[in-house]
Write a structure and sequence with these properties.
By secondary structure, the chain is mainly beta. It contains five helices and 31 strands. Helix 1 runs antiparallel to helix 3 (about 155-170) and helix 3 (about 155-170) crosses helix 4. The longest helix is centred in the middle third of the chain and has 16 residues, at about 155-170.
């Protein structure tokens, strides 16, 4: 975005991108999880995979002018950011979230487009084309300048022109580069851009949470990656618990490739509990992958990647009898909230409370409960069940670019102004509602801290048969 500390609203070509349909991975699902009748387990996935990085600042940039709806102009810095990847690697990114500030040293997670302000943007694929056909992917500035008719193009001009072209599609911004050569590049890129498909994740696990009976292989958890291979890290206490990570034939595995199906092999005499596996690889993250922060720091899109460390985590919960739940979560920009999927592979129904509302998942089935939030909402809530079961979810909803006619100053995360409105549906019917409050609710003895700005609602939106285990 602009400089790394401020942003100005702008508009161009009426690109209105309010939250639209999409399910989003990358939600922080931190906290505790336990099977019925077990103690709370600490191992839960914080995201569904990819690169995690810390933003530095603008490294290569020029100047742009944003023209607002009132006819006023503001000069801003425009160009490439640099991020440091956890456990090794460097990323270069451009801003795709003009109306929000960048927070210094903010943490970012690789995210699908549907989890960002690109959700519902019909021109998102054009941004990927710009990234692949401009600086730094094209580092021959002479050739790039020749295509754009921009003689004497410098790295700063190239970065500024590329960012300007991206803003025109990501934010609908009326924005121009100050340098004439950078402006020529921006115009060329905007005019030439074609829609390309969203790139696949660098690494993700399909079904981040599974459950079943002790004595079974729990899964599968399928690996999806662009890396040649991944290292499979078993549960930390596997030596004492006896829980192994195996393939479909029951063979212990320590490495896997794209498409591999992993299982938790739980000994039959295991006490009820849970465990986590992690997969890790070194690869280049695909150009065009989005990066979102769990604070109010502007969304980025990848322009270049060194060899970087990527990882993903999945959990398993088991018991000998009774309800055996597995909970996971995804941002759902279509509904403006967070979908919590509760699957039950036990032989009894699983009942849990969320925001004071009770939900029941029959044996062998799953339910999706949606907690709806306002834009830019920080949230913190917990699902509670019998025998000490609890699973906590935290994060922030960021599905839109928002228009404004004034400067946006840097905000800090964790400014609570919570309120709750609970609505429950079963198969789209049976409405029930509570009132709202401006204070964090402790409802029905269940500690549900909804740290949000504005309001939150809970919706029972779906039920389906849980996926078959193989």
């Amino acid at each position: 975005m602009l400089s790394s500390f401020s942003a100005l609203s702008a508009r161009r070509r009426g690109v209105a991108r309010l939250a639209a349909a999409a399910l989003v991975s990358g939600l922080v699902a931190a906290g505790a999880m336990a099977a019925a009748g077990t103690a709370v387990a600490d191992e839960t996935p914080r995201n569904q995979g990819g690169a995690t990085a810390t933003i530095g600042g603008l490294k290569t940039y020029g100047t742009a002018v944003i023209h607002d709806a009132n006819g006023e102009d503001q000069q801003v810095s425009a160009g490439l950011f640099e991020m440091s990847v956890d456990n090794g690697g460097t990323l270069q990114t451009y801003c795709i979230d003009l109306h929000n500030p960048t927070q210094k040293d903010a943490k970012y997670q690789e995210t699908s487009w549907s989890g960002t302000s690109l959700n519902g943007n019909a021109d998102a694929g054009k941004i990927r084309w710009i990234l692949q056909n401009s600086y730094p992917q094209v580092n021959n500035l002479v050739a790039l300048a020749e295509k754009a008719g921009a003689a004497g193009l410098t790295e700063q001009d190239a970065a500024a022109g590329t960012q300007v072209a991206i803003w025109r599609y990501s934010d609908g911004a009326e924005v121009d580069a100050v340098d004439p050569q950078a402006e020529k590049l921006a115009d060329y890129l905007e005019k030439s851009a074609q829609n390309l498909a969203e790139p696949a994740a660098s690494l993700t696990l399909d079904r981040p949470a599974v459950s079943g009976h002790a004595g079974e292989k729990l899964g599968p958890v399928t690996v999806h990656t662009n890396a040649d291979g991944v290292t499979v890290i078993p549960p930390a206490d596997s030596a004492t618990s006896g829980v192994k990570i195996v393939d479909a034939d029951g063979k212990v595995i320590t490495s896997a490739t794209d498409g591999s199906r992993l299982y938790f092999d739980v000994p039959e005499d295991s006490t009820d509990g849970s465990a986590a596996l992690t997969v890790q690889a070194s690869t280049t993250v695909p150009v065009g992958r989005a990066f979102a922060s769990e604070t109010r720091s502007q969304t980025q899109i990848l322009a270049g990647s060194s060899e970087s460390t990527v990882s993903a985590t999945a959990t398993a919960t088991w018991a000998t009898e009774g309800a055996i739940p597995a909970l996971s979560a995804e941002k759902n920009c279509a509904r403006g909230g967070v979908d919590i999927t509760a699957a039950n592979e036990g032989d009894e129904a699983f009942t849990f409370e969320l925001a004071g509302i009770e939900h029941t998942v029959p044996a062998g089935e799953s339910r999706v409960v949606t907690v709806t939030l306002q834009e830019d909402q920080a949230y913190d809530f917990t699902a509670n069940g019998a025998d000490g079961f609890e699973k906590r979810f935290t994060g922030m909803l960021d599905c839109e670019t928002q228009g404004s006619t004034s400067d946006v100053t840097t905000q800090t995360a964790g400014e609570p102004s919570p309120a709750t409105s609970v609505k429950t549906f079963s198969d789209g019917t049976d409405l029930a509602e509570t009132g709202s409050s401006s204070a964090t609710p402790i409802i029905g003895g269940v500690a549900i801290a909804l740290v949000v700005i504005g309001g939150a609602a809970l919706v029972f939106v779906n039920k389906k048969k849980a996926p078959e285990q193989h």
